[in-house]
Design goal:
By secondary structure, the protein is of the alpha+beta class. The chain is built from 8 helices and 8 strands. A hairpin with a 5-residue loop joins strand 7 and strand 8. The radius of gyration is 22 Å and the shape is elongated.
Length: 229
């Protein structure tokens, strides 16, 4: 009996997890295909999930996530600290690139290194959390300006690319790549950056850094706690 109950819970969760940004609404057949469950099983479990508010079924007969998932998601986000979601991203960036990874926010004419994880290499770009740097120089600063209220030609070009590379803009020995972190409401929350000794930041290193930064920024955007104010 216990095993049957556990199996039912696992199948119900599989149904909920089948929904994503590309599959926000699904028919009974589509859910069955996505979960490898029989239609009869899906129908039985979906009825329970619908009754409890975890699914809704519209007049078009398509299932969609219900209001209970929104409520639980909001509770989860309110319980998060920004560092809880940013620090794992920085760890993955350091693992992928071998370089220093940072998260910056804008503060007037400066940018603040809110979180960072330094490179394990002995020769590296070393940063401290809380360090303030000019916002008009360096990859992260330029990204914060461009995706903030920047309307100059350089900012428009950065927005079109989706990232910025810098080499010696602030420190002649440092190169960096940065991307914006934009939450699900379209609000700029900061910039993710990978910084390196300039001579080590060759074409291959840049490609790896940009790919990793974009992947992490995209993943991070959906997990950010609500912005204050």
């Amino acid at each position: 009996m216990a095993k049957t109950g556990v199996d039912a819970v696992a199948r119900a969760l599989a149904i909920l997890k089948a929904f994503n940004s590309d599959r926000a609404a699904m028919s009974l057949t589509e859910i069955a295909d996505a979960t490898d469950l029989y239609k009869s099983t899906v129908l039985r479990l979906a009825a329970t999930l619908e009754a409890e508010g975890f699914l809704v079924r519209g007049a078009d007969r398509l299932f969609r996530p219900g209001q209970e998932l929104w409520r639980l998601g909001a509770l989860y986000q309110r319980s998060l600290d920004l560092g809880d979601v940013v620090r794992p991203c920085l760890r993955r960036l350091v693992d992928a690139t071998g370089e220093t990874a940072s998260f910056y926010i804008a503060d007037g004419n400066e940018r603040i290194c809110l979180y960072r994880l330094n490179s394990p290499r002995s020769v590296r770009h070393h940063l401290e959390e809380g360090q303030r740097l000019p916002i008009d120089r360096g990859a992260a600063g330029r990204v914060l300006v461009a995706f903030g209220n920047g309307d100059d030609p350089d900012s428009r070009a950065i927005r079109a690319r989706g990232f910025h590379l810098s080499a010696g803009e602030r420190d002649p020995e440092v190169a960096a790549a940065a991307v914006p972190v934009i939450d699900v409401h379209g609000k700029l929350r900061g910039a993710l950056s990978v910084s390196s000794i300039r001579t080590r930041f060759d074409e291959q290193a840049i490609r790896i850094a940009i790919e990793a930064l974009m992947a992490e920024a995209k993943a991070l955007s959906g997990f950010l706690p609500p912005a204050e104010g």
